[in-house]
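chain below, 171 aa
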Amino acid sequence: MGSKKWIFLSALAALVLVVPASASAAPHFSANVTSVEFVGPHDPSGAFDPFDNGTYESVISIQETGDADFTSVEPSFASAPGESPFRAPPDPFSVSGGNCDSYNPGVGLPNQFFLDPDGSCQFRVQFSASGLSSGEYTETLKLRAFGLPGPIEGNSVEIPLSAEVANNSDA
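prediction:
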């Protein structure tokens, strides 16, 4: 009896070792850009005027690629993990929803974009130079995949953002 049990357990262990940890395709999504450089419209160098009260934006498209366990994408900034990226000046960079629907399954995560299987949507990343000191501004937009019950580890996209604000005497 003991040898049959040992053979069964050995066969079961071999099966566990042969089957990959994730038998289904890994849920994922993609973005249409790998970086965003904001360029000022009035200065030949591309720098923004610190007295410019405008908000400039870039549209980013995200595409879900078909896993049923995938539910949403959460944007955040690397400099402020866990904080809402839906900010306003004096923060130079912010995010707005565009045509991405909010996803909130009732667990207190209102800053996520819902994506249907094989769906896509567009949201805006914004830059405002109003009141900023001269210099280069950089940030990393992190887009993290979520399923139920939470984040899908190892499944995120990072998009570097940059803009330059001119010196007052250069503006």
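The chain has one helix and ten strands. Confidence is low (pLDDT under 50) at residues 5-27.
thats it, cya
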